User: Fold these one by one.
Assistant:
Number 1:
Amino acid sequence: MNKYVKEFAELAKNSVPAGLPVEQWIETYNQNLAELIIKECSSVCGSQADKRNILKRFGLPVESNVKYSAPEQYGSVMSQYDREYNLPK
């Protein structure tokens, strides 16, 4: 098993309240483990649409007002309009 999965399994196990009946304990553990894995998967996506789609697909809440910062423009088509013409002299 991947080290992250082992870490998430331990976190999920520790987050389940003590004293639950076995079936409820297993259900709570599975839900916590799944949420941890889903959130980790969405957090490593580069596209905000992918992040949102992963969370929505598995029924986790999605913040509709989140705006991720875009990288600075580089080699943009818009930048060519600010340059002087490269005409021979």
Number 2:
Amino acid sequence: MDGLTQSGDFTEPVRGFSPQGQIWWQVIEGSSQRIIVCSVVSRTTGVEVRIGYRDGAVIRTQLAFDADAARALAHTWLQALRTYGSLALFMTSSK
């Protein structure tokens, strides 16, 4: 079962997602030639989707309720990066 599972008064991490994280996609930013990574991490409250440079800190995170929502968000971010061409422009446009 995808999504948040409930068991009594507490929740369990989303099944199929590692608490250590998984990389879903990575692209090379055209202007800087740096690698941008989108990863997901299972949390007790859902799936945390992260984006940032592979060699640096996480730039943005957003929590998705279930696996389908996390996939949709990761896809949206990838399409936006392809449109804007850089992480800085993407971040500016998505505020």
Number 3:
Amino acid sequence: MLEEATYIYPISADGALSNNISHIYSVTKFPSLAFKDLLESQHTSPRPSFKDLTVPDFCFEAQNDAIRSLFANTLCLPESLLVLLSHITFVACEARQARYASQKMDASILKDFDDRAKVIEDLLCAWSFRRDRQNWSTPDSMANSPEEDGRDSVLEHIALAFHSALLIYFYREVKQINRLILQPLVQQITTHLVDYENSKQQNNIPTNSVIWPGFMAAIEASGEADFARIMGWMRSCADRYGLRAFDRAITAATDLRTLRVHTGTDSWPDSMLQKGIFLVLS
């Protein structure tokens, strides 16, 4: 899901998802994993049914805690946030396709999209770390940390940073809210990511950092000071962990910011396509 959030799907021939079958995917757990199939099937006639569509098994509810544990151990994130990320990515891709539509969208399609986006918005805004924490097992990488409070502090910082990044992602890409309104979220992401690193060091927790929230803060930061602060976090992580992905994210964020200043292009997906930037962030 993280990789898909920074992969920019090309605009379809008609620039729209005209078959109105998105609701079929929206009931799955991780709909973004099937977006490619949706693009390929939109011109099918007659309209395909659910059983005719290829939906990866991973999209659906797991019968045990295997996936939930996988997320906790590899990303130090609750499953609920990854589910929200997948749904936001799905509707963000739909919204982008619709914006470039060559024909007027049918009213029923627009209503269906708005209804699904409203459900996601309500779930996103209602999410709470404290409420979700009880369903979230401690990652194996933190099992040896002697202080339970220290473990929870680390988990809370990365979860809240990720949640703030999801809010930015949703309101910028789905609702197209002006980025100036969302600058407090940029600052919250940076604060939580810096505190996340400090908490890990204080509690001797040897786990890598998730790049995606920092990248979202960097590409949507308006002020120079906020941009410099989040870039400082990414550079320190690049030095500490030696991961090439941090360097790639730094370069991409810098290029996108420069392009926005020089051309006025406000959409980072459009800028990434224009510059030929391809990222796989985790």
Number 4:
Amino acid sequence: MVDYVNKYNDLVYTVASLKHKEFPMIPKDDIVQEAWMWFVTHPKKTEEWDGLEDKDSIKLFAKALHNAVRKYCISEKAKIAGYEPDDLFYYRRDIVEELLPSVLNGDLQTSNNIDYNDKVKGASSPSEGGNLLAMQSDVSRAFSMLKEEQQNILYLWNETKRNSKELGRLINANEKTARMKVLRAIDAIVKKLGGRPPYPDKDYK
């Protein structure tokens, strides 16, 4: 373990610092400790990934550590605030994409066909109990925080009725590039709304 401490110390502290900024109520030292616990509880992954080329190795470790400490911080924040982590609603990309047209058109509470319950913890259908309007408000707030370039892409995407080929023509790009710009902007909204839920991460058998 000593070799891993020396080799990945900078990565651990970088990840911990970023998560401490996101969750300032969680002591940074506690986040660092949780990051090191990932190495302890994932010995097989640690050994295999450490044997890869540095670029590939760091990428895998960074992703795993971000996931592990984020899961920890979400749990600790819930304890401090007095709620259960399972009560949290995680906005998926497809949910945001479905809600955006009504937000951009100012046509709130318009019903849609998306399944809001699928793979989303603690989520009831937003069209029930007034949740849809609350979600549209969330998406609207996050949209207002985007860079102007990303806002403009989503406005154009909406005006072309979500047609990537037509959007590409307007921005002088191919269809694939246009679609990627839309997805990056939507992912930026998802991130501002709390990001995706942490994924399960078990060690190799």
